[in-house]
Amino acid sequence: MTEIERRRTFAIISHPDAGKTTLTEKFLLFGGQIQVAGAVKNNKIKKTATSDWMDIEKQRGISVSTSVMEFDYNGYKVNILDTPGHQDFAEDTYRTLTAVDSAIIVVDSAKGVEAQTRKLMEVCRMRNTPVIIFINKMDREGRDPFDLLDELEEELNIHVRPLSWPINQGQRFKGVYNIYEQKLNLFTPNKQRVTEKVEIDINSNNLDEQVGAENASQLRDDLELVNGVYPEFDIESYRNAEVAPVFFGSALNNFGVQELLDCFVQIAPSPKPTKAEERMVEPTEPKFTGFIFKITANIDPNHRSCIAFCKVCSGKFVRNAPYHHIRLDKTVRFSSPTQFMAQRKSTVDEAYPGDIVGLPDNGIFKIGDTLTEGENIHFRGLPSFSPLLFKYIENDDPMKSKQFQKGIEQLMNEGVAQMFVNQFNNRRIIGTVGQLQFEVIQYRLEHEYNAKCRWEPVHLHKACWIESDDEQELENFKKRKYQYMAKDIEGRDVFLADSGYVLSMAEQDFKHIKFHFTSEF
Ligand code: GDP
């Protein structure tokens, strides 16, 4: 119980450039995982140093894969699940969100809610994931804090409750008042280290002396307004995902970060029950269960090894214990499971609900696989969404067709992209969110599988998973549209609509068929 209750497993998510990486790094700094944050100049190298594994990301300096960072803080065990910064890998982020108990969304104070912020909030809402919002870059000239709060409520469709408050902003930004603990700590700005702080009573003249009389009276007025306008913070509403606590700060300058982290560990939920197809699984159940939410290749570029990330849902994971791999109906043991620290990984002997263990994977895992001590249950992952881009993939080296076949299969099991096999001509169509995913596939086929691929254009609008109670109509539809029918890797029927017009005609002509843009309904 104690082990479960002290765990905080969460993801920091944001629209690219809002400051997710910087905030993550500052958390590691406060968690004692790193001593100096290297944020100032070498953003790219910094990113490769902590959480990026693949060669391709080193070249490009973007974060492609997801990793885990753990540390102890004030008696809590904090597990941060990192997510790729580039929006072409959004699906990865969505899947990572299946493994967290809460999320922190970073928003740029000058830009407000951006496209990816909206989408990420939708995904959190699908699973009722509690969110905290961190409004970053208060050291820049941004928008008025009250306007930002209104925008969050409106655009993200959730109630907000500020738990810290900025003292001025831009060049005159002085720090943040901690509403949650009703105290003010002033820091000296420092990009790299944790600096000394001074505690100030905001009702004393000391505040006026420290931040200036104008700022002091503005802060007192603002706080009065905040407490008048927003209902008192209620931890249950937050944990039920009805209200999002909001914090202000500047991750780069270390302002508002400790306020956020201190409050986060106290209010964020410990591991919640996990929904399996058969039943709810409670974290306190004695027997181990877990699921794979992420597979990453090539941690060591010299060996083609994969690591499957397993989220422990119940019981205790123990090294070398026999576990049941449900999909393969096979007993598996892991002699060298790993846990992750900021810059290294180490072998782990046991892990508790909320923890993520890295399992060496030589191709036995697929995203969404369940492990148990024997019980036949299936955890449900996040559905696939209709991709935005489609291309035919062809083998470009006839001598290497085995390698090509194997490479494609494993990359799809890892969830690098989606694949649809056209039932008419048997050609494979790869669907992605962004162009970069095609490049990753090509690169990895070449470097990990020694296979070459070629892309050919295919003009498609949407992939629709179809269902109907009317078997006959479904059969008629498949016959009529046989050139556009495909199977996804789970073998489900998918209609590939080549235009919005064709899709709406199909919906009109086949009234008993439902067309879904996600794979689960
Ligand atoms: P990510 O793409 O969300 O991971 O964003 P990064 O953490 O890489 O930050 C994007 C850029 O914003 C970097 O150049 C950071 O140095 C900068 N940045 C992050 N936090 C702050 C902040 O509080 N103030 C200012 N002025 N810049 C920041």
UniProtKB/TrEMBL annotation:
GO terms for molecular function: GTP binding; GTPase activity; translation release factor activity, codon nonspecific; translation release factor activity, codon specific. Residues 5-272 form the Tr-type G domain. Transmembrane segments: none annotated. It is found in: Cytoplasm. GTP binds at residues 14-21, 82-86, 136-139. InterPro entries: EF-G-like_DII, EFG_III/V, G_TR_CS, P-loop_NTPase, PrfC, RF3_C, RF3_dom_3_sf, RF3_GTP-bd. One of its GO terms (cellular component) is cytosol. Keywords: Cytoplasm, GTP-binding, Nucleotide-binding, Protein biosynthesis. Increases the formation of ribosomal termination complexes and stimulates activities of RF-1 and RF-2. It binds guanine nucleotides and has strong preference for UGA stop codons. It may interact directly with the ribosome. The stimulation of RF-1 and RF-2 is significantly reduced by GTP and GDP, but not by GMP. This is Peptide chain release factor 3.
